[in-house]
Amino acid sequence: QVQLVESGGGLVQAGESLKLSCAASGMIVSAMGWYRQAPGKQRELVARIISGGSTVYADSVKGRFTISTANVRNTVYLQMNSLKPEDTAVYYCWALRGRDVYWGQGTQVTVSS
Prior knowledge:
The chain is mainly β. Helices cover 0% and strands 57% of the residues.
């Protein structure tokens, strides 16, 4: 069983930055990433990274957000720059192992205008 522990959410003003962290424990995973869900909206992909280093970003965050992994395996970061009010959401860490998908508990990011 994989457990995901997130940290780094908070309240910032538009234009500021935040960095989210997620550590997966229990098993080695093949891909990790971040999704987000705003009130009244569906959960959507923010960014993903696979074990080989390839990344995928939502168009809305390209050029502002960067996903990366640490030297310690199974840890993923999301550096969020130039935050906008529309980035306000609960951000969920995501991990893939084989065909099994795992989710973190979510961390709130609120961007005020």
